[in-house]
Amino acid sequence: MNSKNKYILILGIFLILGILTPNIKAQEKTILVSSPKNDQKFYLGDIIIIKWTPPERFKHVIIILILGFKKIGSIDMFVNNSGTFEWFIDPEDFNDGEEYRIKISCFGDLNYYGYSGTFSLIERSTLLTPIKIDISLLSIVVIIIVVIMGVIMNDFKGKKRIIKYINKKKNKKKNV
Asked: Do 98 and 53 lie in a common domain?
């Protein structure tokens, strides 16, 4: 048997045993996750839209959060395979950081999956966050401001009276 025939025979054996077939199946079993995209930045507390191309044969998908190469949390374990999902990034459940990704797998065939681009989660600065003020706190602040203004005005009137008194004395001395 010559080398060309041996090569064809070995290639045929590989095809029969299915060694080359998984590569083709892996490409067929990829979910395209279109959002979030690479280098996007989101604030903890935001709602983001996760988007993917839904595989037709599956009714549900699993969405998990990956940091680097480690699963750090399940976003939802049973989502309708509609192609979109709104995710509230709960600041109490997740930390700020870079290199986050979303992995979407088909419910019923975990070998059918896809990843989003890498994105960052950023802690919202307290300077940019609106302050929630309780009504009782607000009323205390207003009372304090009114009292301070009263003291200032009263003190001002007192000084004005003293100045008026001093001017009267000066005028009396000039008249005498």
From this structure: yes
